[in-house]
Recover the amino acids of this structure.
């Protein structure tokens, strides 16, 4: 039987603590590796250049984790998209398939990685008159949860300022048709927005480049 002196025990505990810290750091660094498979659609650092695929770099880690869990449980609709780059370019896939085999550690790591990235706003066309009208509508209907003109991730909601308009429009359809869950507070606000107002708000978010 090996007996350790108090000093030896301290060294062992310190070594174990260092080993745990290194393992934790390795796990965090793993997020970039996990995201490599995602980047063929979402772009480098989550900066998607495809208007049907959201820009996700800069989202809060909590939002990413909850979104992936909802895709895993198929609570969110898994719309099929054409893979725009990489070895599977031109083939079809969807988020339910992509995240199916991710472990909880993978999900946490990739969420932390994305939260550390910069949100790169989409360069897209918009109607200036509608965008101007959208300012007041944003303040009335959206600002409470989507702060700083929709650019803040702090409320753990999606970033809207500079997000691709076709993607946002598709998500609003999913919300309105019940294909994507939304809380009572958002439903109450969204129900008060007609189609013309919706377009004004979308153009307001698109104008932020």
């Amino acid at each position: 039987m090996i007996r350790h002196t108090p000093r030896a025990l301290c060294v062992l505990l310190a070594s174990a603590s260092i080993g745990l810290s290194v393992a934790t750091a390795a796990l965090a660094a793993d997020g970039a590796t996990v995201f490599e498979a995602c980047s063929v659609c979402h772009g480098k650092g989550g900066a998607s250049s495809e208007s049907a695929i959201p820009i996700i770099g800069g989202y809060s880690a909590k939002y990413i984790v909850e979104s992936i869990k909802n895709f895993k449980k198929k609570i969110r609709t898994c719309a099929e998209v054409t893979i725009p780059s990489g070895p599977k370019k031109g083939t079809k896939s969807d988020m339910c398939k992509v995240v199916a085999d991710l472990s909880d550690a993978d999900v946490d790591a990739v969420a932390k990685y994305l939260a550390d990235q910069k949100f790169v706003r989409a360069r897209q066309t918009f109607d200036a008159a509608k965008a101007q009208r959208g300012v007041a509508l944003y303040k009335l209907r959206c600002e409470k949860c989507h702060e700083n003109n929709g650019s803040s991730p702090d409320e753990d909601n999606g970033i809207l300022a500079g997000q691709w308009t076709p993607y946002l429009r598709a998500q609003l359809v999913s919300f309105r048709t019940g294909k994507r869950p939304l809380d009572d507070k958002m439903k109450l606000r969204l129900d008060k927005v007609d189609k013309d107002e919706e377009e004004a708000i979308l153009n307001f978010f698109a104008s932020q480049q």
Summary: Confidence is low (pLDDT under 50) at residues 1-29.
